[in-house]
Amino acid sequence: MPVKDYSYEWMLDRVYSKVPVKLGGGERFVPPKPQIVYIPGKTIIKNFSEITDKLRREPRLLMRYLLKELAAPGSIDDTGALVIHGKFSASAINVLLNRFIKTYVICPNCGRPDTVLKKKGKVWILVCEACGAEQPVKPF
Whole-model pTM? Predict the structure, then answer.
């Protein structure tokens, strides 16, 4: 059987034809902006349940994180809104929400939000469903 002499350009074209095309920037993760309402002595995040649905996290986990960071009491009402006792600026809540997303939602390896939080013993593990990476995270 004769051996064919393949040119470098032909082999390179063949490889590129076999590799799937990756479209850059297809889906960018954008969390919903908190809709904040102030009533005397309270700060209410009206779309709290929408935020937790988009982040794919339990509302109690995000509530516990925010309340701990703000050092304030609060609760989730019947409509799914988070009621925080005290007046806190929208920028402070946005900073805390972005910090939560960076630490407990976004995969540090591939940068995708397709993650799940699992508890193994006393350690929280961030498991990425996209790349399979497992990363321990700080406890709440």
Answer: 0.77
In this predicted structure, the answer to whether residue 94 has a pLDDT above a threshold of 70 is: yes
How far does Cα 78 stand from its chain's mean position? 25
pLDDT digits (tens, 9 = 90+) for 12-22: 888 888 876 55
Q: Please, which residues have CB within 8 angstroms of residue 66's CB and are 6 or more apart in sequence?
A: 74, 82, 84, 93, 96, 97, 100
CB 79 within 8 A of CB 71: no
The answer to whether domain 31-105 has CATH 3.40.50.300 is: no
Euclidean distance between CA atoms 24 and 37, whole angstroms: 37
- Map out the domains of the chain as residue ranges: 31-105, 109-140
